[in-house]
Design a protein that fits this description.
Layout lengths: L2 E13 L3 H7 L5 E13 L3 E5 L6 H8 L7 E6 L2 E2 L5 H8 L2 E4 L13 H11 L7 H11 L16 H13 L5 E5 L7 H18 L2 E6 L2 H7 L2 E6 L2 E7 H6 L4 H8 L40 H5 L4 E3 L5 E3 L6 H4 L1
Parallel strand pairs: 3-8, 3-9, 6-7, 7-8
Antiparallel strand pairs: 1-2, 1-4, 4-5, 9-10, 10-12, 11-12
Helix pairs in contact: 4-5, 4-6, 6-7
């Protein structure tokens, strides 16, 4: 499968203190590493899920791909074109083929605009004034399962599920090749979550969309993604085919996340793996394996040596000195 999006060795840094304060305190590198050498690819029509605790770097990756942040190092190629260093005009032309769904379904919609105005706004932003906007609004509303009567409503008149459908319609306005969905089911009832996920799956099948989903909801990941990547402190600790990772996690952090996920089968035996302590500060990263301060299987080597990237024959990659075996992960 050819790659639509290719990200290689991506590093994103944020300044942690002003130059003056850094000089006064003798700090030579007043930055924090929010994303540390991440690489991944998304094929045409494929869905990748980014999973991890808050602050792990998931949204930073998405914002960097969208051009809202600049990387310190690495490359981002979309449909064969390198995006890093592109001028604003060139990037905007590429940007038409990428769109983003934001986390808050209602809060991300301007309360002063009608639903019609909101979903046709991308045409105006990108200077596509030759479109018949009423016809486009009708097409997009029908695509996401809303009647044309919604065109005259305002965001406060919508339920959470309806607002999310409007967000999907807005994201699809310019017929993008890639959608980045930030917590697409956040704040929705379970039944409505299923409706939204089924909508995304149907649209992906009909339109050949590629989707990057950012979420902490593992049920969402299992329902809709082909592959998943587990993030911890700005790095991938494990990534590969979704079902393989759910069936047999190789990294202890992955195992802990999966074991904490609610099990829909009431007869299933719970075997929760606890991880203790808080997520370390990005300003004070642990030596060795950065997960060792919370790992239930930590050994001396973990405290001193960072693990190298390893891989399995099933397409999985992970960073762990002592990867989980079948009996211990079961």
């Amino acid at each position: 499968m050819s790659a639509l999006l290719e990200v290689e060795n991506l590093r994103v840094r944020f300044r942690a203190m002003s130059p003056l304060r850094a000089m006064a305190t003798g700090v030579k590198d007043p930055f924090i590493e929010a994303v540390c050498g991440v690489s991944f690819r998304i094929g045409a029509g494929e869905t990748l899920g980014l999973v991890g605790e808050s602050g792990s770097g998931k949204s930073t990756i998405a914002r960097t791909v969208m051009g809202l942040l600049q990387p310190a190092e690495g490359s981002i190629r979309f449909d064969g074109q390198d995006l890093v260093g592109l001028g604003r005009g060139e990037f905007n032309r590429v940007r038409r083929n990428m769109s983003m769904m934001f986390q808050d379904p209602v809060g991300s919609l301007s309360p002063r605009l009608t639903i019609r105005s909101l979903i046709v706004e991308p045409f105006k932003i990108h200077g596509l004034s030759d479109r018949e906007l009423d016809a486009e609004a009708k097409r997009l509303l029908e695509m996401v399962g809303l009647s044309v009567d919604f065109a005259g409503r305002f965001p406060h008149q919508l339920s959470g599920g309806q607002a999310r459908r409007v967000g999907v319609a807005r994201a699809l306005a310019l017929d993008p090749k890639l959608i980045i969905a930030d917590e697409p089911t956040a704040g929705l009832d379970v039944s409505v979550q299923g409706e939204v996920l089924n909508l995304l799956a149907r649209l992906q099948n009909d339109l050949g969309l590629s989707i990057l989903i950012i979420t902490h909801n593992l049920n969402v990941v299992r329902h809709i993604t082909d592959r998943m990547a587990i993030m911890y402190l700005g790095q991938f600790v494990e990534h590969g085919p979704t079902e393989e990772i759910f069936y047999h996690p190789r990294h202890p952090y992955t195992q802990a996340l999966l074991s904490a996920n609610p099990e829909p089968d009431p007869d299933a035996v719970s075997s929760r793996v606890e991880i203790s302590g808080e997520v370390p500060s990005l300003m004070n990263r642990p030596a060795g394996c950065e997960f060792h301060t919370r790992c239930p299987y930590v050994q001396d080597l973990c405290r001193s040596e960072p693990p190298a990237l390893a891989s399995d024959s099933d397409g999985r990659a992970y960073t762990c000195h002592f990867p989980l075996q079948h009996d211990r992960a079961a």
